[in-house]
Design goal:
It is a single chain. The protein is of the alpha+beta class. The protein has helices at residues 2-16, 24-30, 35-46, 50-68, 73-79, 85-96, 100-104, 158-167, 170-177, 236-253, and strands at 130-135, 138-148, 185-193, 198-206, 216-220, 223-231, 263-266, 277-284. An eight-stranded antiparallel β-sheet has the order 1-6-8-7-3-4-2-5. A hairpin with a 4-residue loop joins strand 3 (185-193) and strand 4. Helix 1 (2-16) crosses helix 2 (24-30) and helix 5 (73-79) packs across helix 6. The radius of gyration is 22 Å and the shape is elongated.
Length: 285
């Protein structure tokens, strides 16, 4: 349960410092996790990014203060971290559907996002199929792109990236390079950027040998891996598996994620089949 307690400690820290500048590095230190893994864990368990949570909570408190006091909108904007009243009004309208002036007049409804409390489900009714693999260092090769994430994501994302790489033949070339223990193509996130709400997303293949000039390489060090078998159509089965791993398996098995990207191995030829079988490789310590 240490993981859950650490996450709650980080959430409590955010709540105690909502009116101050916050960084993902400061917050993640409260959970004894790297910024990347804290953000990833938080997103999996809550379906929102840390930045989205802070923004929603600040605008919830701002709305409550707006309708219960006579504070000026310009002062409210400054108090909740907005440089101008215009920026505050734009964010306020996006969350609540009305402007601050309209909310003060009682026009429309306020969207309230309450303080978050992390809970885990230790059901154990449905078994999770996994194996433990101790691996020496290995290499993956492929392509990567900075992709948006979070509730305010804009622009082409991960699915569009896969579509382009399928269309231009990159995926076929990577399949030809597969010669390692991971039998399918790999999707993985690295280098989370909290300010931009983006990650570097890789489409890759495990490959022992020279790296073709058109591809980049990523070297994984020796590590212990928990390999979870995922059955069902992608992406639904993948999303459900991540939630169970972080809310059930990790809290009850004494491991924490290592500071390495998690690997999604797409092994089944038909990813949308009810009987599709793929894998999640989670490095642990």
């Amino acid at each position: 349960m240490a993981l859950v307690e650490s996450l709650q400690k980080a959430i409590d820290y955010m709540e105690e410092h909502l009116l101050k500048p916050l960084t993902i590095e400061e917050i993640s230190r409260q959970a004894n996790l790297s910024a990347f893994h804290f953000q990833r864990t938080f997103l999996i368990l809550t379906d929102i990014t840390v930045g989205d949570y802070i923004r929603r909570r600040r605008l919830t408190l701002a709305a409550q203060e707006l309708i219960s006091t006579g504070i000026k909108i310009i002062d409210l904007a400054c108090k909740y971290g907005y440089e101008t009243p215009e920026a505050f009004t734009k964010a306020f309208r996006k969350q609540h559907g009305v402007t601050p002036s309209e909310a003060r007049k009682g026009i429309g409804n306020i969207q309230s996002y309450n303080r978050l409390s992390i809970q885990v489900t230790l059901k154990g009714a449905e078994p999770m199929k996994y194996r433990i693999v101790n691996r020496e260092a290995f290499q993956v090769v492929g392509v990567k792109r900075e992709c948006p994430c979070g509730a305010n994501a804009e622009g082409p994302g991960i699915s569009e990236f896969w579509g382009e790489m399928n269309a231009n033949g990159t995926v076929d070339k990577l399949i030809q390079l597969l010669n390692g223990e991971i039998k399918g193509l790999i999707g993985m996130n690295d280098n989370y950027n909290a300010k931009k709400n983006t990650v570097d997303y890789w489409i890759a293949a495990e490959h022992a040998g020279d790296v073709p000039a058109e591809f980049l390489s990523f070297e994984f060090p020796a590590a212990k891996w928990i390999v979870f078998e995922i059955e069902g159509p992608i992406p639904t089965a993948l999303v459900n598996a991540y939630k169970r791993i972080y809310s059930e398996w990790l809290p009850s098995n004494g491991y924490v994620p290592a500071e390495l990207p998690t690997i999604e191995a797409y092994i089944s030829p038909d990813l949308h089949s009810l009987h599709s079988r793929n894998e999640i490789w989670l490095a642990v310590k």
